[in-house]
Amino acid sequence: MLALLALLPTPALADGLIDNVNGLTIDKAGKVVRFNGLLIDKDGKVSKLLERKDKRPERPDFKTDGKGLTLMPGIIDAHGHVMGVGFQALTLDLSAAKSLEEAKTMIAAYVQAHPDRKWILGTGWNQEAWGLGRFPTAADLDAVVSDRPVWLRRVDGHAGWANSAAMAAAGVTAKTASPAGGRIEKTGAAPGGVFVDAAMDLIQKSVPEPLARERDLAFVKGQQTLLSYGITAIADMGTSLDDWMTYRRAGDNGGLHIRILSYAAGVPAMIQIGGPGPSPWLYSDKLRMVGVKLLSDGALGSRGAWLKRPYHDAPNETGLGFLTDAQLRNLMSRAAMDNFQVAVHAIGDKANAQLLDAIDELAQTYKGDRRWRVEHAQIVDPVDIARFGQHGTIASMQPVHQTSDRLMAEARLGPDRLAGAYAWETMIKAGSRLAFGSDTPVESPDPFAGIAAAFTREDAKGQPFGGWQPQERVTREQALAAFTTGGAYASFAEDRLGSLTPGMRADFILIDTDPLMATPAEIRATKVRETWVGGRPVYTRK
Amino acid sequence: MLALLALLPTPALADGLIDNVNGLTIDKAGKVVRFNGLLIDKDGKVSKLLERKDKRPERPDFKTDGKGLTLMPGIIDAHGHVMGVGFQALTLDLSAAKSLEEAKTMIAAYVQAHPDRKWILGTGWNQEAWGLGRFPTAADLDAVVSDRPVWLRRVDGHAGWANSAAMAAAGVTAKTASPAGGRIEKTGAAPGGVFVDAAMDLIQKSVPEPLARERDLAFVKGQQTLLSYGITAIADMGTSLDDWMTYRRAGDNGGLHIRILSYAAGVPAMIQIGGPGPSPWLYSDKLRMVGVKLLSDGALGSRGAWLKRPYHDAPNETGLGFLTDAQLRNLMSRAAMDNFQVAVHAIGDKANAQLLDAIDELAQTYKGDRRWRVEHAQIVDPVDIARFGQHGTIASMQPVHQTSDRLMAEARLGPDRLAGAYAWETMIKAGSRLAFGSDTPVESPDPFAGIAAAFTREDAKGQPFGGWQPQERVTREQALAAFTTGGAYASFAEDRLGSLTPGMRADFILIDTDPLMATPAEIRATKVRETWVGGRPVYTRK
Prior knowledge:
Chain A is of the alpha/beta class. Chains A, B: It holds the Pfam family Amidohydro_3.
């Protein structure tokens, strides 16, 4: 009889205990809650937060001693590109290059190390970080590689840099015209080698598609990287059909550990993936296609961001608006009519105004809890910011962009248009729901750099002292919320993710600093010791 | 303590019992096994076959009295089109029309009943059944509907019939040339309205794509139809990406009840669905992408089947070979290199010979258990039949095609080429593994018509008496095996499906005849009373 009893599923036996931690979370009311131990149930959900005085279960299934480390909710990165992170790891990564010469040296070394690659592909270059004062050229690349095509995406994904062999392979000549929504940089009459936004496809269409097994490998790499930074869930902003099939293969094979909140790359992919509506939560809440990602303009670095007035440093340019008002409304409407959530990339003040107008109009037809998402909301005309407080609009912003872009943004915009730039605190005051992310692989996925930037507006070197436009700092608690509960809310996941309160998924990290107490430098140096998803460890620092 | 004990999962409590049945199955050795009761475990697998004398469990979770009905394995239809069955149910179905005039009456009634449809779509017409002596024409259709496009697929799916409005919408004129692998039937110089094989796409590309919710509805209809005929698993021959996404939606939402053994519609779909290899078994063995379906020729009715010598009734035609030898090998090779199973439609003797040559060559490179599938293998040169016994080749054939096509086949082929036509018994003697299917919606999915045809070679009217080419009859046991264990083997599923032996999925049907004992007429009249998949009832006859 005793043997039979031992088989009974009693509550105590199903519990796991993470004890002796400096626990913190944001609760449903937005308040910080502190705790010392965390009980997990057999479904991988939080069953109880324990204070020091609380009684511990006598025989939990497993018990982990947190050794005083800080335990906080796993980060929800509200804007990233999972496959981009993976492919960056598998191809040439130029993000460390500090000059064109350094980049050329890295390219030469990579080509020598990969003699079998028919195309040399890479990412991460940023002429702004090189002090080059111009875009790089095909000739710059030809000097290093002339025997096969080279195609390198800019750090922001909004431009690509080709050598002459790549342009020849793609059939691009002096006669090739810039497509709508794109720009071919020129050297005299000839294509200069850099292709901005929609013009990228002139080269991209000739690049061999990755094999499925390369996609699978990229996913594994991307997931590994994100988990190592403490990211347990990520809004994947622009999931292609092939990306989706890759995530499903991982799920089907038991290899999906991070939670992916997927936004399809455009309406056709949205329909093909989701069919008549958003997907259900799949694989124990590891994957869901929530809505669609649309693009209304380009990026600031490549002067693709769509501005109301010309660029300060290019008086004949106002950037690239990708969609007419009617096109934008039609796409948003197609998604909203089937209850897909709409997330629209808008960087320039003109693009933001266009989008806010569209939300205003569509909200008349598509009522209820829609959570229209503005991705980036970087350069907003101050007269438009109050509108972020209407219709449940969400500002999905990336704190590290502010510190990375500061000097470039000042050059692009001049001194008069900075009041509504990266205006986090004003967004909150306007009543917008804020969600923070990294835009990785455009930036490092490291959320601690984001948290530090969010409450200081200083970069890693402490510049500028006191913070850039310091009135836009948020509190530490607001930063933490925007990286946890804010991201969950922004993807309709607040009923299961973002907060370590009973009934929520036990997604958490053990870290060596307390982000509500430590200095900005300490926070930036945070090491993630363990990452847990659904009550199971999925990353342990070696 | 007694209350606690009641919660204990004891083996007896997890069992279900279907008792008092006339049970039969084919075991792993190919022998018929008889039983009187079936025990099912909590995973929905067969745990034990019970004879009359065997002791029954005392308190099974559930108990069903079979009331003496025959219980046999669920049918595995080795060749069908799940979405086709569903769409046939949702659009105009002309398969009951016995003449052009009847078809026109049905079309007129349908158009009147559906004034909102912008295109009139349908299937099931067969000019051979109309005694028309020619293809129908656009003018025939225009006489009924001229104000909007009409597009009707032939019963075999290998031709389409358009009215003038459809041809105008698609931009087809007298100048439009027949594409490779296709034929535009002509009326003088003008397109006549019928488009064969690859020419169908000239119209099809202009037909509005179904909405995702229409696909979902078609799936529900198709599944319902198949289960009502006792089909518990089906090889879906030509799963498009959209079909696959539909099946996955059903699986994700708990609405997938039939087992789908999927063969992707061509290599690009295969790669996009499967990625680096066949999918795992999904949803408790309800769905798996096993391999690829390729097409090497058309069909006999539309004179698309590729023959070694000209058609008897069209001396200038030898049919349509879709692929060169090199193309066929390349496609097969692309699939086989990643361990996808290869299933190739081959109807004419030339197409079969081409395919057997390709298998011969590829088997040198792709060794091991490959199970090359020849779909239809309808008209085979007797000199080639022995080759079906090599390299583990599978003949995937449809008994009802023989009875439906008999007169047409005699007209198309003349008297001298019938020795290798629908040559089931010779295939078995040659050592080929036989799998039977329906090709639904080309034919009714009813497997009992197939079983009766298989051991009689007589049609529903008993014609011709004694059977057409009666030496090609198979035994009742062979017919049953080809519809159960044969279909499982043909899709690498014999470790879980096809036989009601312990450890196999409890997929079975309760029917009112014993197919090993009843007359052909009784077998054709069989009613499926219940269909069970994975130990649960999924269809009950009202």
